[in-house]
Amino acid sequence: MILVAGSANLDFVVRAAHIPAPGETVLGEDFKTFPGGKGANQAVACARAGGAPTHMLLALGEDRFAAPIEKSLLEAGVGLHVIRDPIRPSGTAFICVSAEGENAITVAPGANHGLRPEHLPSLTGVSHLLLQLETPLETVTRYAQIARQSGVKVVLNAAPAQAIPPQLMASLDLLLVNEAELAVIANTSGSVAHNMLAIDVPCLVVTLGHRGCIARLNGQWLAQSAFAIRPVDTTAAGDTFCGALVAALALANGNDAPAELAQALHLASAAAALACTRPGAQSSIPLREEVERFLSQQARSPDVEKQALLQYAGVMPETGPVN
């Protein structure tokens, strides 16, 4: 079983021709609300796109925004451990989505900031703990330490990007970031590969947007090209990737071999691609059957594409093999 501990928000989404520049007012199109939040999105992705048994620890306010968040998680088959905050409102996010599917997001954390170390439920039966950085850093660190001490694999999606304390980094089995987050955490200037080598974790996965993703597992490099799609809304694409990846690894019984990670990257990339073709956060996350059907219609990335992706990242032939 996977336990996701993290944020849950209600997203307020406006579509517009383009995302406003500072000081600019843009006339929007339609407005909708969607359940979101990195933690909740990833929990839904674990259960729906990944098909893995999933529970979530989350904090919500005693307000009307909490109901649609809980409903979405329950409908996805996620077991809930809800902390009620009598003071803070449920978290919210304000999102502008452009005609090209790109987005700009502002988050008001609300009750998400009320998660505390003592709220972590029993880890009996849990194989993987999936964390993000939309809840207090000291809480995330303590959860990771407890999980490591309990023999649970710890996965961190370090978003929003910030410096990671050494005690948290030392508790990680897998770190998931995008290219910009990688640069912040590595705190070095150089290629993607250079920055990846500056981070000491057993497994590091970096998403590279429309290009795909690369990974370093115990010194070995892997690459997965992105699937060609026409994006509608990229909201939650990264969260879908994270959840589907962790689910695939959990269903592989925690086998950390490169072959299992390569297969997980393949499935997660497909799930994220499908999420980009639909509006909203959790509403865009596909079912496992949809992901498998999509993959059955796709050709495997040829080695030349993987090599090009690694070269973009700055991985030289002598640095490691292409997988």
Please provide a written account of the structure.
The chain is of the alpha/beta class and 323 residues long. Helices cover 33% and strands 25% of the residues. Strand 6 and strand 7 form a beta hairpin. Helix 1 packs across helix 7 and helix 8 packs across helix 9.
The largest sheet, given as strand count, sense and whether it forms a barrel, is:
9 strands, mixed
In quaternary terms, these chains amount to single chain
Helix content: 25-40%
Shape: globular
Question: Can you summarize this structure?
Answer:
The protein is an alpha/beta fold and 323 residues long. The chain contains ten helices and 13 strands. Mean pLDDT is 92; it is low at 319-323.
Index terms:
globular; 13 strands; UDP-N-acetylmuramoyl-L-alanine:D-glutamate ligase; 10 helices; 4-stranded mixed sheet; 323 residues; alpha/beta; disordered C terminus; 9-stranded mixed sheet
SSE arrangement:
Blueprint: E1 2-5, E2 9-16, E3 28-36, H1 38-49, E4 54-61, H2 66-75, E5 79-85, E6 91-97, E7 103-108, E8 128-131, H3 137-149, E9 153-157, H4 166-169, E10 174-178, H5 179-186, H6 192-197, E11 203-207, E12 212-217, E13 220-225, H7 237-251, H8 258-275, H9 288-296, H10 303-313
Parallel strand pairs: 1-4, 1-8, 2-6, 4-5, 8-9, 9-10, 10-11
Antiparallel strand pairs: 2-3, 6-7, 11-12, 12-13
Helix pairs in contact: 1-7, 7-8, 8-9
